[in-house]
Amino acid sequence: MTLLFQPSPPDHVPGERMVDFDMFHVPEGQDDPVEIWHDLVRRGVPRIFYTPRNGGHWVFLDYADIVEAYRDHTVFSTYQTPVPPIEPFPVVQPQGVDPPAHNVFRRLLAPMFTPTAVRGMIGELERRASELIDRFAARGECDFITEFAERFPTSTFLHLFGLPEEQLDAFLALANVFFRSTDAETRARNIGEIYAVLDTLFREKERNPGNDIASAIVAARDEEGRQHPWEDILNCGFLLFVAGLDTVTNTMAYIWRYLATTPAARRHFRERLDDPDAFLRAIEELMRINAVSNLFRRVTHDCEYKGVQLRRNDRVVLPNTVANRDPRVFSDPQAIDLDREVNVHLTFGVGPHRCIGSVLAKREVMVSLQQWLRRIPEFELAPEQPAGSAFGGSVMGFTALRLRWVRVEA
């Protein structure tokens, strides 16, 4: 098989821009995976550098360069971008298609994730969050990841897609392999399993449509009144599967981890439970400081970018956590200011592929925290945390986060 999108050997990379860095490796004893990125900044590595790890790729560290890579699809494509490189890789719709072709499915999905549409979901989100919290509130402790942060966004996805709740554990298992494994054979098998589930889902929705996103995708028609190609339908489902689960889970993990160690921040949110604007402004700041995603782009053609020679099919990794702490953009960027007024963070990207589900993601976090603080106003980290739970990669986070509190009567 001819591999069309594999990067070339890095003989175009000057020695001073070569840095040995593995985004998937979190050193033993490091309990916060984002620190592997900020350590690069502290070490003073080049703001654009190349690492031979994971198939070889560039890294941009400046906010301005990361924004440029998000916006200029003529140079930095979203098509066939995985790190490490995998072929064939699903052409996720619309994220993995460059403009203007991406507009077909973006226009289809956008109305389902508008602020108005998401407001209509609030009651269901509140119910789901409360139901999960009720399972452990009286116990006085929980593993936040496995008992809440994984289950809440995944169960919400199942609901929105019209899937039975009984599939929750199976979907969690599929998502964990997809986001954690770096083994090509394992990942390829996992992608095939996800697509098999999606194919079964969409076939069922074609026969028995409901009031859900999967039914809407299957029922949609192109400009000539025809159903969209089945492969594109599956690819759209795949995007929604992978995009809405892990990032929300690990954003929540970081936020709860911070709140568990910061009494003043807990008090700040409790005092604003009935002030949604101030509550959301504080959440935006925690999303800025706790950006968990490192997104990928692929260079479309040989070119020079700011004095750096790029070759066709070179991969570029864009670490949002570094962009969001750029001192040229954010005042006192390392400080967490829950009243920060101007917050142009890149947690959800920018440009034509800005996260279409950002409104829902923020609402999921907001509703979860509101319901949590009403039941568990004070909590802290358990004294013993599982060793080695931090992980890096395209989404950073934790496999476990133990919290405890004074037991609350059910």
From TrEMBL:
Pfam families in UniProt: p450
Entry keyword annotation includes Heme: yes
CDD domains the UniProt entry points to: P450cam-like
Example GO molecular function: heme binding
Protein keywords: Heme, Iron, Metal-binding, Monooxygenase, Oxidoreductase, Plasmid
Family: Belongs to the cytochrome P450 family.
Name of the protein in question: Cytochrome P450
